[in-house]
C-alpha cells in the first residue's frame, strides 16, 4: 500500500491498480491549506463533510475510471474493501456540521480517517467500539476548526494506533512541531508512505509525516 498526502485532508491510497481517495479538495475550496486540486482516477472516494475543502470527487474521474463516492455513515463493501462510516457532529467554518469518521481495511490493514473533527465530535464510545483496533490513524492537528496538537495527541493515546499520520495543518507551521513535541518524536517528512501488514508489527503510535504535494 502506498499513501500520499495531497494537502489539507486529501490522501491518495493505492494498492496495486486499486486507488482510494479521501477528502478530495474541490476547486471551490478557499482554504489556504488546500493547494491545487489534484487530478487522477480513483475507484472509491470518501468524503467526510459536504464542504468544498473535502468534497471534490469531481476531480477523481480519469478515462474510464469514475469513483464510487461515499459521503455519509453506513456500511459499504466495494471492490472487496469493507468500509464503515460513523456520524459525528463538529464545528467547521463557524458552523455546526455533520462529519463522517471512516474505517476501512485494505490489504489486511485497518485505516481510520477522522475527518475535520474538533474536540466535541468524538465523545460517543460506540464509534470506537465499531471501529475496533486501528493500524493507521489519520489525525487532524491544526487547531482552529479541528483538534489542537495537544488534543490530537491525547486522542491518539486513547485510540492506540500503530501508526499516526497527521493532517490538516500548515506545512512549515508550528502545529506539526507542537504535535511532534507532544508525541516525543523527531521525524523527517517523507514523499510517500509504503507499508505492508508485516511492517506494522510491534509499532505503537509511530508518527509518519508526509510531504504535501
Describe this structure in words.
The protein is built from 3 helices and 13 strands; from the N terminus they run βββββββββαβαβαββ. The protein is α/β, with parallel strands linked by helices and 213 residues long. It has a single domain, classed as Metallo-beta-lactamase, Chain A. The strands form 2 sheets. A 7-stranded mixed β-sheet has the order 6-7-8-9-10-11-13. Strands 5-4-3-2-1-12 form a 6-stranded mixed β-sheet, with no helix packed on it. The model has no long low-confidence stretch (mean pLDDT 94).
What is the oligomer described by this structure?
Answer: single chain
CATH topology: Metallo-beta-lactamase, Chain A
| Major β-sheet annotation | 7 strands, mixed
**Principal-axis shape:** globular
Low-pLDDT windows of residues: none
What's the architecture, going by CATH?
A: 4-Layer Sandwich
The count of DSSP E runs of length 2 or more, i.e. the number of strands, is: 13
Amino acid at each position: 500500500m502506498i499513501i500520499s498526502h495531497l494537502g489539507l485532508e486529501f490522501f491518495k491510497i493505492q494498492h496495486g491498480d486499486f486507488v482510494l481517495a479521501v477528502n478530495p479538495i474541490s476547486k471551490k475550496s478557499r482554504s489556504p491549506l488546500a493547494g491545487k486540486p489534484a487530478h487522477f482516477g480513483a475507484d472509491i472516494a470518501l468524503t467526510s463533510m459536504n464542504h468544498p475543502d473535502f468534497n471534490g470527487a469531481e476531480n477523481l474521474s480519469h478515462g474510464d475510471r469514475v469513483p464510487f463516492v461515499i459521503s455519509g455513515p453506513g456500511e459499504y463493501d466495494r471492490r472487496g474493501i469493507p468500509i464503515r462510516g460513523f456520524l459525528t457532529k463538529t464545528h467547521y467554518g463557524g458552523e455546526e456540521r455533520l462529519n463522517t469518521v471512516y474505517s476501512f481495511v485494505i490489504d489486511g490493514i485497518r485505516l481510520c480517517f477522522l475527518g475535520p473533527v474538533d474536540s466535541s465530535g468524538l465523545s460517543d464510545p460506540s464509534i470506537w467500539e465499531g471501529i475496533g483496533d486501528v493500524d493507521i490513524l489519520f489525525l487532524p492537528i491544526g487547531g482552529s476548526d479541528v483538534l489542537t496538537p495537544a488534543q490530537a495527541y491525547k486522542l491518539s493515546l486513547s485510540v492506540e494506533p500503530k501508526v499516526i499520520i497527521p493532517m490538516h495543518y500548515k506545512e512549515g507551521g508550528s502545529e506539526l512541531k507542537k504535535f511532534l513535541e507532544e508525541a516525543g518524536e523527531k521525524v523527517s517528512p517523507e514523499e510517500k508512505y509504503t507499508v505492508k501488514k508485516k511492517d506494522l508489527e510491534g509499532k505503537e503510535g509511530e508518527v509518519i509525516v508526509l510531504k504535501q504535494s
